[in-house]
Amino acid sequence: MGSISGPTWLGKLEDQLNVDLWVNNHQDNVELFKNAVKEYRDQGWLAIYTRIACLMCRESIDNMKGRVLLQVLPSNAYDGQKVLEHARMYAREFEKVGISKDRFCIKIPSTGPALSVCPILKEEGIATLGTALFSLPQAVAAS
Predict the structure, then answer these.
(1) Does residue 10 form part of some domain?
(2) Is the pLDDT of residue 25 over 80?
(3) Membrane-spanning residues where (predicted)?
């Protein structure tokens, strides 16, 4: 008798949340992922994650009107300093991949500490949008 393998944990999560997770195994993204890991390996996983997200936006932006949107980590929703640092990290990476400030917007969790950094980012020319989380699965999908 042969064994039957079920769906992976990532597949189950994707099905349960009813969203497409960008970290799944699309062959189109393998080289992009490998190059980002190689280039940023000494800077930690958040730098790699941010780089990949911005590179993927660059691949898509010509097919879009308006802005591309990326969200800071929802796990930092109650730490304004970490939200500010991640938003600035996105801005630096967008600049590196050739996406100007008028073509991106950073989604900020709608908590007091996180929203408190929006005026600072606005002063720096970085557009923001308050976003809400209503459940743990949403937070997992967004992180």
Answers:
(1) no
(2) no
(3) none
pLDDT per residue as tens digits for the range 68-87: 999 999 899 999 999 999 99
Place of tokens 């969200």: 71
In this structure, is residue 5 part of a structural domain? no
β-bridge mates for residue 70, sequence order: 106
Residue 15 within any structural domain of the chain: no
Local confidence band at 111 (pLDDT 50, 70, 90 cut-offs): confident
Whole-prediction pTM value?
0.76
Distance CA 33, CA 52 (A): 6
User: Is 66 in a helix, a strand, or coil?
Assistant: coil
Domain containing residue 124 = 23-142
SS3 25: coil
How many whole angstroms separate alpha carbon 140 and alpha carbon 138?
Answer: 5
CATH number for position 129: 3.20.20.70
Residue 18 resides in a domain: no
Q: How many domains does the chain have?
A: 1
Instruction: Find out whether 7 and 15 touch, Cβ atoms under 8 Å.
Output: yes
